[in-house]
């Protein structure tokens, strides 16, 4: 049995002791539980009272964090150690927002600060031009963060630019985006760390043709020569670095379109909000460490309770894209089957993450959360102060948020088996005082560090993603077959291609 499996195994006694104890009983039996199992870091509050643990189980989880040396691992992350072991790289996304007093991290911060000055200068020039619309072209980590941020923080833009996102290689997406725009008043930002992602390059070419050249094209990439070869003036190429992973990169020049729409001040506030969580993750003791607590409950739910999926339920329309963003952050980071040394794991890792905004989701998949045969742990996310003036309607929204978490936890005996809701379905409640660039930055950094802490507890690398390469490689082999220039080697793919190419 691996060391991690043995640690997880030692939690099983607590799991067995608590199995069959209703969550409602744990809550009723302990008047101080709701207050004790809550943490606040600036404008971000978390309540873990509806996780199915008692003090003994939480102490065992903390012991596991201690054995896995999570505090030292946070230090290694922030110091710029090569925590991405398979690619021998640092993962210094924290240096995009926090100047930690470690030599490599501080140098990275200074480099990022220089890039921000360049971004700001380019943004000022663009503001002074006739451009009204920005087309952000990128995919995965080069798309999801800015896309979510601008949807969430729309209220903080001054309307000077409209930003449009183009990610899918399906040209229906390009037709939809470009169909509404005037090329003479548009500029494009091509975001690709590698500058080798087929989808982004093809959409980039399509947009370049539509714009009539690359004069109003910007690039964000760690591969400057390739961006230049594409025809983008080096003065309009913003840097990326191999020490920032794509899904951790919205804080860098990858967020150029965010800076354009939100302005420098809001962009800085976003970084400051994330920075507060960086410092908290490093300084807070394990028993009061917000991302670590979240990670420990994730491990408890996955490995002790055996829950295979995790829901994210923002009760705020502005955060409706959060589940999609977290799907990449969590599942690309933690979807691993070997440990950092390449040894096959003898325990489960990433749950399937899914979700949607409340209250809409209540009228689609919540039935399964309440009465399905599988328990789905949930993160509920609410915002206390809305940015609209319909206070009573906001209270209705919050009443639903609270009611759903309560119903999942406590259930209801019902008059018939069909009506019975079993309860004991765990959830975490996250509350933001207000949705601002700072609190939004804090929320995302909180999830980033929870993901990292989970990877440390499991002994896996959160910063590589070799699994996504196989499909890309096969697609390049299948393209000639689709074009009729070759035969597909896989018999099923060959049959499918005959079907696709059949005259009709
Ligand atoms: O899908 C794999 C992936 O490498 C992601 O990790 C990354 O965010 C995305 O592709 C885009 O990569 P790039 O920024 O290099 O175009």
Give a structural overview.
By secondary structure, the protein is α/β, with parallel strands linked by helices. 48% of the residues lie in helices and 12% in strands. The protein contains 19 helices and eleven strands. The strands form two sheets. Strands 1-2-11-10-8-9 form a six-stranded mixed beta sheet, with helices on both faces. The chain has a five-stranded parallel beta sheet with strand order 4-3-5-6-7, with helices on both faces. The radius of gyration is 24 Å and the shape is globular. Bound molecules: 6-O-phosphono-beta-D-fructofuranose (F6P).
Q: Which secondary structure elements does this structure contain, and how are they paired or packed?
A:
Elements: H1 3-18, H2 23-28, H3 33-36, E1 38-41, E2 44-47, H4 55-67, H5 70-79, H6 103-127, E3 133-137, H7 144-152, E4 162-166, H8 171-178, E5 186-191, H9 198-211, E6 217-221, H10 224-229, E7 237-239, H11 256-262, H12 264-283, H13 290-304, E8 309-315, H14 322-334, E9 352-355, H15 366-371, E10 378-385, H16 391-410, E11 427-434, H17 437-458, H18 467-482, H19 491-501
Parallel strand pairs: 3-4, 3-5, 5-6, 6-7, 8-9, 8-10, 10-11
Antiparallel strand pairs: 1-2, 2-11
Bound molecules: 6-O-phosphono-beta-D-fructofuranose (F6P).
């Amino acid at each position: 049995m691996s060391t991690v499996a043995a640690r997880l195994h030692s939690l099983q006694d607590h799991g067995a002791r608590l199995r069959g104890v209703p969550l409602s009983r744990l809550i009723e039996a302990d008047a101080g539980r709701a207050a004790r199992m809550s943490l606040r870091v600036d404008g971000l509050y978390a309540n873990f009272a509806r996780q199915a643990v008692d003090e003994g189980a939480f102490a065992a989880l903390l012991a596991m964090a201690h054995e896995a040396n999570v505090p030292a691992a946070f230090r290694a992350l922030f110091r710029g150690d090569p925590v991405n072991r398979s690619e021998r790289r640092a993962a210094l996304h924290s240096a995009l927002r926090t100047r930690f007093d470690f030599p490599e991290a501080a140098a990275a911060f200074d480099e990022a600060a220089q890039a921000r000055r360049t971004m700001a200068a380019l943004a000022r020039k663009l503001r002074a031009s006739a451009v009204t619309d920005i087309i952000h072209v990128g995919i995965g980590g080069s798309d999801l963060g800015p896309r979510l941020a601008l949807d969430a923080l729309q209220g903080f833009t001054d309307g000077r630019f409209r930003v449009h996102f183009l990610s899918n290689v399906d040209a229906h997406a390009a037709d939809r985006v470009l169909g509404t725009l005037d090329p003479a008043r548009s500029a494009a930002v091509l975001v690709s760390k590698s500058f080798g992602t087929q989808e982004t390059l093809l959409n980039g070419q399509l947009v370049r043709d539509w714009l009539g050249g690359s004069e109003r094209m910007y690039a964000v990439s760690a591969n400057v020569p390739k961006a230049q070869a594409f025809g983008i003036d080096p003065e309009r190429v913003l840097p990326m670095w191999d020490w920032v992973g794509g899904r951790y990169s919205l804080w860098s020049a990858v967020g150029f379109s965010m800076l354009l729409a939100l302005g420098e001040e809001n962009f800085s506030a976003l970084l400051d909000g994330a920075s507060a969580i960086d410092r908290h993750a490093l300084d807070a003791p394990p028993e009061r460490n917000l991302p670590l607590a979240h990670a420990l409950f994730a491990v408890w739910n996955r490995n002790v309770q055996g829950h295979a999926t995790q829901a994210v339920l923002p009760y705020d329309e502005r955060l409706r894209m959060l589940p999609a963003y977290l799907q990449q952050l969590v599942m690309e980071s933690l979807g691993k089957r070997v440990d950092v040394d390449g040894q096959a794991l003898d325990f489960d890792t990433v749950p399937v993450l899914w979700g949607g905004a409340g209250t809409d989701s209540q009228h689609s998949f919540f039935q399964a959360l309440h009465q399905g045969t599988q328990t789905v742990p949930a993160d509920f996310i609410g915002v206390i102060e809305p940015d609209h003036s319909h206070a009573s309607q906001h209270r209705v929204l919050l009443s639903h948020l609270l009611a759903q978490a309560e119903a999942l936890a406590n259930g209801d005996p019902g008059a018939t088996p069909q009506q019975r809701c079993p309860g004991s379905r765990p959830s975490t409640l996250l509350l933001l005082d207000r949705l601002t660039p700072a609190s939004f930055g804090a929320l995302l950094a909180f999830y980033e560090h929870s993901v990292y802490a989970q990877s440390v507890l499991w002994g896996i690398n959160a910063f590589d993603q070799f699994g996504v390469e196989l499909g890309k490689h096969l697609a390049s082999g299948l393209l000639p077959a689709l074009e009729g220039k070759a035969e597909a080697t896989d018999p099923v793919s060959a049959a499918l291609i005959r079907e696709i190419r059949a005259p009709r």
